[in-house]
Amino acid sequence: MRITYITAGAGGMYCGSCIRDNTLAATLMAQGHDVLLLPMYTPTLTDEENVSADRVFFGGVSVYLEQRFSLFRHTPWLLDRLWEAPWLIRAVSGRGLKTSPAELGELTVSVLAGPNGHQAKEVDKLVHWLTHEPTPDVVDLSNSMLIALARPIKDALKVPVCCTLQGEDIFLDHLDDPYRAQALQLIRQSVAYVDRFLAVSDYYAERMCRYLGVPGAKVDVVPLGINVTGYEPRTSADTTSDRCVIGYFGRIAPEKGTHLLCEAFHRLRHLGQYATTSVRIAGYVGPEHRPYFESLQRQVKAWGLEDDVTFEGTLDRARKVDFLRKLDLFVVPAVYDDPKGLALLEAMACGVPVVTPRRGTYTEMVERTGGGVLVPPDDIDALVVTLAGLEADPARRAQLGTAGAVGVRSHYTAIGMAESAIGIYENLVG
Question: How far is the C-alpha of 70 from the C-alpha of 281, rounded, in Å?
Answer without folding.
Answer: 45
